[in-house]
Amino acid sequence: DSGVTQTPKHLITATGQRVTLRCSPRSGDLSVYWYQQSLDQGLQFLIQYYNGEERAKGNILERFSAQQFPDLHSELNLSSLELGDSALYFCASGMGGEPQHFGDGTRLSIL
Amino acid sequence: EDQVTQSPEALRLQEGESSSLNCSYTVSGLRGLFWYRQDPGKGPEFLFTLYSAGEEKEKERLKATLTKKESFLHITAPKPEDSATYLCAVQDINQAGTALIFGKGTTLSVSS
User: Fold this and answer.
1) Nearest residue on chain B to A40, judged by CA atoms?
2) CB-side exposure of A10: number of CA atoms within 13 Å?
3) A32-42 per-position pLDDT tens digit
4) Rounded CA gap, B53 and B65, in Å?
5) Is residue A86 very low, low, confident or very high in pLDDT (cuts 50, 70, 90)?
């Protein structure tokens, strides 16, 4: 058990819809990272938050946004969903250059 | 641009047949190189961090090594339970934040 909790485990929705993915980091970790994993692209970094502030952005689409709340949990919002957004979305938490610990992901299926 | 390339993409071994997985990387400044194991339907599980060339880490049947251009994950006398996808990732000291840049992984299958 990594200590990182992600909900829900599975999401099935339709094109054009909006969904919210939730992540609770390990106790004591101030950074939360979001990654997208697809079969052809592998694990791709989306965005990092540190203690409530956005720290770094990767290949995150404008239709996607995230935030980190005062209790350090984070949410990833995906809107105007397209078929190509179907993927596994992972949250990780960590501190600086220390190893990141990953949750078991949310599998998003767009029909 | 930072880049991580893993080879082979897939590897099939017999139980007890030792082998190595390769991770080649290009990064402007290496903060750390990380190895993870990922089982189907699960998130990546941390194995090792290496910070400088010449460094080695060991855990059970796994040993990770690092040079200035690549890292190897050596698997000695593997067992079927070692079957998984092994992911290599780097952190660039010159990038904003501390995100990981991942390779696409090596899928290892060990048969008894």
Assistant:
1) B104
2) 3
3) 999 999 988 88
4) 8
5) very high
